[in-house]
Amino acid sequence: MNSIRHIIKQAKANPKRIVLPEAGDLRVIEAASLISQQGLAQVILIGERNDVSQLARSHHIGHNIDLSNVEIENSEKKDGQSDNAEKYIDALFQARQHKKDQIKKSGHKKLTLDQAREQVADPLIFAALKVLSGDADGFVAGAVNTTADVVKTALQLIGMKPTCKLASSFFLMQHDLAHQAIQGTAIYADCALVIDPDAEQLAGIAIASADSAKNLAGLEPKVALLSFSTAGSAKHPNVDKVIEAGRIISQKRPDITLMTEVQFDSAIVANILRQKAPNISVDAPANVFIFPELQSANIGYKIAQRIGGVTAVGPILQGLKHPVNDLSRGCSVQDIVQLVAVTSVQAGSNENRI
Length: 354
Fold this sequence. Notes:
This protein is α/β, with parallel strands linked by helices.
């Protein structure tokens, strides 16, 4: 199965309102045009219309860009400012007031209305406030902003789903080449956010990833908790963490098909799994691979991508109350288009869960 095509089809069937706050970047403008033309989402660019048009013309590609169906909204204090600015200023002020107990403990001063008014002019914060206020369904950033800024803004203003304690991430990995040991789409997690999860956190990442596999990618999730040990072949505290995560998952979500504590080759090759762990009843290959910590996850997905020829889409964030996704600053126009489609589908899935 090609989940990327599946996601594109879903996005077209139910396009959501997705904000792109980095309209000063030409790639974002081009992507907004393509997304609109393909009907993947209802795009909202945050910027000043004349500036956007001038940027497109300055690169001699204005004739290729059609923004007629793209909403452009200005967050700054000048002619054409959003009519929503005052509403968002109040939303930001109220959001910060809810954190006053933590602010007091940290020794920081509470946000004033004047400070809120100044911060709303930041397109990233403005985008998050549009989602918080219900005027958009999600946002995508990172072509200009750092991952730290995108994630921090999302956590502070969007917040976590009531059922989740941890924001995490995954990559959609598309295996389409003949030499690859598995075929179709798989999920690798967490390759971008949680550096060294404990057993409880690792279980949370696995549960969230299994749900993302089903709700976003259209997969029947089969989860492998990866280790350097298979079925007790090695003894170490790092292995114990993976085993404990499996116990937690089985207790919380017995509906999830799970291989606990397996090496990667066992998780993907049926004969190796039977040889190393004949007592594991789940058949290989898995399609949701949970790495024990960020270092191995990040290395693993990049080896698969750069040497193995696997197509990687992400990182895709999970666990937030409303979908927010982070681009690489080296992203292509196509990367933006695909991640907006993902965000739009996540927003549609959220409607049935929040």
